[in-house]
Design goal:
alpha/beta, Rossmann fold, 2 domains, 7-stranded mixed beta sheet, 5-stranded parallel beta sheet, globular
Length: 317
């Protein structure tokens, strides 16, 4: 059924890629990523890809630029080796927060990355929870922007059964994401309103919506240094919530994130393996859910020409 399908993993997420091929009943394609003494990247594809539909699993997570360059070099090698289709599975699309000009003379790097990938020769992008869904429009090839929200919903339904839940967006921009999770959980929503009353004065936070006496679930696509979400958790508890959880599709957890989250009111922070969990975040409050079964099902459906919406049936919601 998938005899013309090959799945390769580069350096960012080998463990998750191995889970994907196990779900597909395949073996990982054979390749090597090497570095010259000066840091230049060279790849070796150790088997024929001629006429094959190739899937390359590589999140552009830290070190972001190095991961991206590995992917570009590998795609170029596949194109020159006559692969039929080159599909890249980028669980976390780096540079996605640079999706518009927020002020004068800023780059739109999310568009630049799209141009680089298409110039290199990709046929399709499969990703998860783009920071801005409009990034799909930066590509001329098909883009499948999958969502981890059903995965979180199934976990939380079991974890918080019988609780009165409110789903909280950390800002106005994430309200659509919060509404989607709230629909699955049959919960209400709230939004944190943040503002600075004057320069160099700390943010004032107001909660739009009722959280008193409820179990709050903050939902965001990315947690990086965790400053905003940790402050939001404190504001929620101060507003009378019984307890607070967090879910995020992409746990970057850089810099002071570990200390902030460990010292925060969060009972648990739930993320996915689109980015491997950094060593310093293990054995703490973070719970990792795997998106590998969803990726495997997406690959299968792409190969068979089936609707990707059926992928979410895995979670019986």
């Amino acid at each position: 059924m998938l005899e013309k399908t090959l799945v390769f993993a580069l350096t960012s997420n080998i463990e998750m890629a191995e889970e994907v091929v196990q779900n597909l009943g395949l073996e990982l394609g054979k390749c090597e990523v090497k570095h010259f003494a000066d840091g230049e990247i060279i790849v070796d594809i150790l088997q024929s890809v001629r006429g094959k539909n190739v899937y390359v699993i590589q999140s552009t997570c830290p070190p972001v630029t190095e991961r991206l360059m590995e992917l570009l070099v590998f795609v170029d090698a596949l194109k020159r080796a006559s692969a039929k289709e080159i599909n890249v599975v980028i669980g976390y699309y780096g540079y996605s927060r640079q999706d518009r000009k927020a002020k004068a003379r800023e780059p739109i790097t999310a568009r630049l990355v799209a141009d680089l990938l298409e110039t290199a020769g990709i046929s399709r992008l499969v990703t998860f929870d783009l920071h801005a869904p409009q990034i799909q429009g930066f590509f001329n090839c098909p883009v499948d922007d999958l969502s981890a929200i059903p995965l979180f919903a199934r976990y939380l339904k079991g974890k918080l059964a019988g609780k009165s839940i409110v789903v909280v967006s950390p800002d106005h921009g994430g309200a659509t994401r919060a509404r989607k999770l709230a629909t699955f959980l049959d919960a209400s929503i709230a939004i944190i309103d943040k503002r600075r009353p004057q320069p160099n004065v700390s943010e004032v936070m107001n909660i739009i919506g009722d959280v008193k006496g409820k179990t709050a679930v903050m939902v965001d696509d990315i947690i990086d240094t965790a400053g905003t979400i940790a402050a939001g958790a404190k504001a929620i508890i101060d507003s009378g919530a019984e307890s607070v959880y967090a879910v995020c599709s992409h746990g970057i957890f850089s810099g002071p994130a570990h200390e902030r989250l460990e010292n925060s009111p969060f009972v648990e922070i739930i993320t996915t393996n689109t980015i491997p969990l950094p060593a310093h975040m293990r054995n703490g409050k973070v719970k990792v859910l795997s998106v590998a079964p969803m990726i495997a099902k997406a690959i299968e459906h792409i190969e068979l020409g089936l609707a990707l919406s059926i992928v979410y049936d895995l979670y019986n919601l």
